[in-house]
Amino acid sequence: MKSDFAVEFHDVVKVFPTPEGSTVTAVDHVSLEIKHGEFFSFLGPSGCGKTTSLRMMAGFEWPTSGEVVIDGKTMGRIPPYLRPVNTVFQSYALFQHMNVFQNIAFGLEMEKVPKPEINRRVGEALEMVKLGSMGRRTPKQLSGGQQQRIALARALVKRPEVLLLDEPLGALDLKLRKEMQLELKALQEQVGITFIYVTHDQEEALTMSNRIAVMSKGRALQIGGAVEIYERPNCRFVADFIGETNFMTGTVKALTKDRVTVLLSALNQEITGIGSGALSVGQAVAVSIRPEKVRLVDEDKKKVKELHGTENLLHGKVVTTAYIGSDTRVVLDLSGGLRMRAWEQNAISTLDPEAYYSAGDAVQIYIPVENTLVLPEDVS
Amino acid sequence: MTTAPASEAPAKKFSLGRSLRENRVAQGLFLISPANIYLFVLIVIPLLMVTVLSFLSRGEYGQVVFKFNPDNYARLFDAIYGKIMIFSLGVGVGTTVLCLLLGYPVAYYLARASARTRSLLLFLILLPFWTNFIIRIYAWMMILRSGGFLDSILMGMHITRGPLDLLYTPTAVMIGMVYEFLPFMVLPLYTSLEKVENSLLEAAADLGAPPWKAFLRVTLPLSVPGMIAGTILTFIPAMGMFVVSNLLGGAKTILIGNVIQNQFLTARDWPFGAAASMVLMLLTMVFTLYYTRKAGFGEELLV
After folding, report:
1. Cut 0.95: pTM above it
2. Residue from the list A87, A89, A97 with its beta carbon closest to the beta carbon of B222
3. A 29-68 residues with CB below 8 A of B?
4. ipTM of the predicted structure?
5. CA distance A232 to A230
């Protein structure tokens, strides 16, 4: 009978001593639950505690306080070699004195799997990562991408409960990385093992994961699916880290069930959006508006639209534009020295320069209420 | 394409300047010539001299006589020299093995120590080299002699009843040899152990290897280059050692090195001494080659 979750963190804290004699808190009261068969990513900038979290699952580090539970069993101080998890290391950590076959067989030999079964399973693992004929090569004779696959095969051949991946694609070039992302995702669906993936690359996390934990300064700020953390970030950091966004600061003026009205400090104008978390009147907040969710209308062409009551209206002037094919990236100057970026999709194919914005154009800026996110500066 | 115009260059005369400009082989040879000269003057010529010397005869007054004499080698097959040869080999191998066994944990600890501890320990290991080697061996004489430093400690702690009489025994020679050569084992071992990345040990643990298995399957094989280098650095000079056996071994413990030293300095039979040197060299070479072949599975790691 399987437990409900593959991995659980119960209020986990990890404190490291520094050489200067002080301490740093790498992981700060993190609680989360990862389901069986899930592709779960820890996403955050370097030093956010994502790798430390992974290493506590692997058993290379022990929590200062709190519990790491794997498949229903509290790990405590169980050493790495007794845990039902395997790791794909960032540096691959392949054994240079063994060939590819021996590298993959190593873990099975430790389990005292009979020789014929080792041969069969290593063969299968090599096939799985599409390196069937490479068994006799040494790791040095392989390319980075191939080494990465061997590291993957070496961990997966053990059929772990959970596979831990520590920025496994970090050393590969962009094209290979994109290929491997899709391959990893397909592989995970094929083997059905829980994958826990550490990365600082948001696109990578969004592409592959069922759920993502966005981390900063040791804390898991938000845990959710790709759509959720992009469309409904719960604080300024998450909105800023995932994708691009415009921020305007202000204070909460009025609150209804699903609407928040904010007085923007730079414009002295009210804007209505949807709130996240517990907000209160008078609270200082950040308003986040994604550049692709801004709609512009040229004022001079008098195409001024009717407001539907579900949109905010601002005025501005185009400062610069950059045509990048799929869209035109416009930088706007709102009154009060506030800048805003807007990406206008080039949905109609035309060579007419009039169809595109250019510097100096006065524009009306429409922002639907649901595209206007009112966020606390930080989650508490 | 037009054909190349007929070359009007006449047969070129040899010119050093031109070959250096145009000929890559000549460039290469010229560039390594300092090393070649060094090798030729300091190794090839002396070796040739010893080889020639080993086939000459000793004159009545100990001078070298230019008369072909293969007897020098025949004399070495005497049982007494055979015994010394085998004993020397035993001391050489014993020293190497003991240095390896004692040096490995030291090197391992060094490689895993924090940067500060590490530099302090490396400094301590190199510290004895600041003092003359012979003076340090004399110090060992003080330590090992009857009623000396070691005896007084052991007897003071009631571990032994009487003096151990260690000085002038083969044991004393082994102690001196191991003492002398230990750093030559530790340093190359340390270098190769230091290169064993921690992530490899983590990977081994992650794949189910308890620490001792990780050591046997990962650390040990990866330190083979250091073991080979340390063994060669210890074994070869240990085979030719004569100072330690002279001072700590007394008259009873004679190594092939002492035989050679005696022939050159006391017996003044240079040709025989040269022949003994040649045999020692061959013996050492055969042993070292055999060993490196046997341990050759680590060769690809010797970078």
Report:
1. no
2. A97
3. 58-60
4. 0.84
5. 6
